[in-house]
Amino acid sequence: MANFAKPDVPRFAVEVYQNEFLPEGGREVNAIVTVTATGGGTLGGLPAHDGAVGAASAVALMVDCSGSMDHPSSKMRHARDATRTAVAALRDGTRFAVIAGTHVAREVYPGGGRLATADDRTREEAREAVLRLRAGGGTAIGSWLRLAEQLLTSEPAGVRHGILLTDGRNEHETPEELRAALDLCAGRFTCDARGVGTDWEVKEVTGIATSLLGSADIVADPAGLARDFRTMMESAMGKEVADVALRLWTPQGAEVTFVKQVAPSVSDLTGRRSAAGPRSGDYPTGSWGDESRDYHVCVRVPAADVGREMLAARVSLVVPQPDGGATPVAQGLVRAVWTDDTAVSTSLNPQVAHYTGQAELAQAIQDGLAARKAGDVDGATAKLGRAVQLAGASGHADTAKLLAKVVDVIDEANGTVRLKARVEDADEMTLDTRSTKTARLHQRPPAPRSGT
């Protein structure tokens, strides 16, 4: 493990967990790469310094004000309260704006195509402006995102972040229009997305969060919005470095099979690679504060004879600089060693095995719920039964509880379940939305081999 961070930026560390031993002729190398950032998000409310790293953050709050937010009327009231709570949590010096979203996007505060700077006066002005929000109109989420992008990129900022709330489906623009908006915003800002109530589309909300490297969740009871908004804003205020990339170098003849974030949630980054020099590619990871995330890297290498050893991949964390370049801040090595010892080559690394199971768990839940909606009872029972089995084996107690609201568990160890005759919409949507959240391995394996 190597750490190259300068004293004035968050420190990153990379650890690699793998079984580096392959059988003769073996080609697939799997590794879990744990990235840990420390020292970010510790300004204690003081204004951030200038520069690409640690510069003032910019936040856009996008609040659904469509007509459905008035059914019941308490939904709009809770949305106003939540937005006011989030504004109150803004750190001094943060640049911010509030957007009302219907079939068009409207600036609520400060207006004029600009951002406000958070202090006692502007926070109170914004909170007063939010009180005037009323429900009425349709839903065109792409327009909200486009306005957020315009505002957030109107001036320099260290970390750009959005918080988006919706209670309905994106009915007033096409899927292609929403996709185009997401493509425009990707890499410009990160965004947490929330669905309130049960009349919104899970795939739309999770798709927004996935595209913009944020979190997605359901707030089934509008009364829980204020608490959730406060948590999201506090997390956003803890981010100190943006646009960090996982850079993967592979030798001649090797190719990357996939790169996935596997903790705290599953997100496939494979298709988001951008070239970063000969045999190198960057995968976006978004903004960081004090936190740790795990990534599953799979590389296919040329087959070799027993006794051969090679560097299968070099994994680096790179942070953007004001001059447009990028600085490596940590590095780890993925190795391949060929052996004729079957016991050694077939031993599963605990981290790799755990996260392979977690990815399968997420897929089993999504496939099972899709089969249930399609009326495929046998398919849904089989998939959700497998999910129950995996959740139990991996100690994912939270997911096990959510599954128990959709199926009756007869035998957890064997994955024997029976579909419940009646399932609340909120329970099914919660399971679907949170299916990609993962549980980390409780016991870390012995210290990994790492490189400099």
Describe this protein with a few key phrases.
alpha+beta, 11 helices, single chain, seven-stranded mixed sheet, disordered N terminus, 452 residues, 31% strand
How would you summarize this macromolecular structure in one to three sentences?
The protein is of the alpha+beta class and 452 residues long. The protein has eleven helices and 21 strands.
What does this structure look like?
With 452 residues, this protein is an alpha+beta fold. Helices cover 30% and strands 31% of the residues. It has 11 helices and 21 strands. Strands 1, 3, 12, 15, 16, 18 and 19 form a 7-stranded mixed sheet that branches. Strands 5, 6, 7, 8, 9, 10 and 11 form a 7-stranded mixed sheet that branches. The radius of gyration is 23 Å and the shape is globular. The chain starts with a strand and ends in a 19-residue tail after the last helix. The model is unreliable at 1-8 and 41-54 (pLDDT under 50).
List the helices and strands and how they pair.
Layout: E1 2-3, E2 11-17, E3 21-23, E4 28-38, E5 58-64, H1 73-88, E6 95-101, E7 105-109, E8 116-117, H2 120-130, H3 141-152, E9 160-166, H4 175-185, E10 190-196, H5 202-211, E11 216-219, H6 225-237, E12 241-249, E13 255-263, E14 267-268, E15 274-275, E16 280-288, E17 291-300, E18 309-320, E19 326-339, H7 342-345, H8 350-373, H9 377-394, H10 397-403, E20 407-411, E21 416-419, H11 425-433
Parallel strand pairs: 3-19, 5-6, 5-9, 9-10, 10-11
Antiparallel strand pairs: 1-19, 2-4, 4-17, 6-7, 6-8, 12-16, 12-18, 13-14, 13-17, 15-16, 18-19, 20-21
Helix pairs in contact: 1-2, 1-6, 3-4, 8-9, 9-10
